[in-house]
Amino acid sequence: MPPASHPASAPVVDIRGLTKTYASGLQALKTVDLQIGKGEIFALLGPNGAGKTTLISIVCGIVTPSTGTVLADGHDIQTDYRNARMKIGLVPQELTTDAFETVLATVTFSRGLFGKAPNPAFIEKTLRALSLWDKKDNKIMTLSGGMKRRVMIAKALSHEPDILFLDEPTAGVDVELRRDMWNLVRELREGGVTIILTTHYIEEAEEMADRVGVILKGELILVEDKSELMKKLGKKTLTLNLQDPLATIPPALAQWDLTLKADGNELAYEFDSNAEHTGVPSLLRALSDQGIAFKDLNTRQSSLEDIFVSLVHREPAEDIRAGAAT
């Protein structure tokens, strides 16, 4: 596999030779090298058990790596933990909040934990950005799941970090929170904050990310600029709506590897839009020769989700062990 591409400017997150093997023998990470630039939005995609949370936990100093180094804005996460951790905000998957505290108190306390001087105006601005200001005096135990998620984000932002990790941030939350959060991410990015997110909502990565990394069974199998990834791996699908349904695909059309859909009413042909010869003109001529007429046709560019699924399915069909490597 070629080395991961990385930004030309000095990376704000610099991961080199990172591995993690647990006492059970489970190898959760296999030699991860990754550099992420200031103000970049980096999306880390992978199925459950792929190693996403293990990687984030190591970078945030929660899990100790077996080998390798991690620098957060130049500070080693192991030998200079305090300064490194000051640079990082983490929104974990789990809702772990102080149930009996008020929203304002717990977010203010989080800021103090990092040794930051009180700044009520900043805390208010953060709570307003997350639509939490009118809930500031509510005890967290009384809030809905979506509101608790907002509190977790506010806590992570309370000490004004330069690097923000969002681990499956919108899993199971309402559309309104998702919209608010992505607006906030855009604002943070404009202020120079680096954002690393893991997500199952691939359309969000497709919309927001500058680069995409795909992790599978502990290995970073691909890191690519999103636009380059779409260009290199993106396929187009030509769909033909037939005049009359087909029971089977005629042998004369076998070379195009067509798929029959919609009870025989549609023919689908996947082709490489970057290829010199796409095969589309010759297919249309062959259909005419076979007396197969169509009412309509359309083409669709592969989405990032299509690309992700094709990458994952290209791997050997082994069980991906869940557990510590989620």
Automatic annotation (TrEMBL):
<dbReference type="InterPro" id="IPR003439">
    <property type="entry name" value="ABC_transporter-like_ATP-bd"/>
</dbReference>
<keyword id="KW-0067">ATP-binding</keyword>
<dbReference type="InterPro" id="IPR050763">
    <property type="entry name" value="ABC_transporter_ATP-binding"/>
</dbReference>
<dbReference type="GO" id="GO:0016887">
    <property type="term" value="F:ATP hydrolysis activity"/>
</dbReference>
<feature type="domain" description="ABC transporter">
    <location>
        <begin position="13"/>
        <end position="242"/>
    </location>
</feature>
<dbReference type="InterPro" id="IPR003593">
    <property type="entry name" value="AAA+_ATPase"/>
</dbReference>
<keyword id="KW-0813">Transport</keyword>
<protein>
    <submittedName>
        <fullName>ABC transporter related protein</fullName>
    </submittedName>
</protein>
<dbReference type="InterPro" id="IPR017871">
    <property type="entry name" value="ABC_transporter-like_CS"/>
</dbReference>
<dbReference type="GO" id="GO:0005524">
    <property type="term" value="F:ATP binding"/>
</dbReference>
<keyword id="KW-0547">Nucleotide-binding</keyword>
<dbReference type="InterPro" id="IPR027417">
    <property type="entry name" value="P-loop_NTPase"/>
</dbReference>
<dbReference type="Pfam" id="PF00005">
    <property type="entry name" value="ABC_tran"/>
</dbReference>
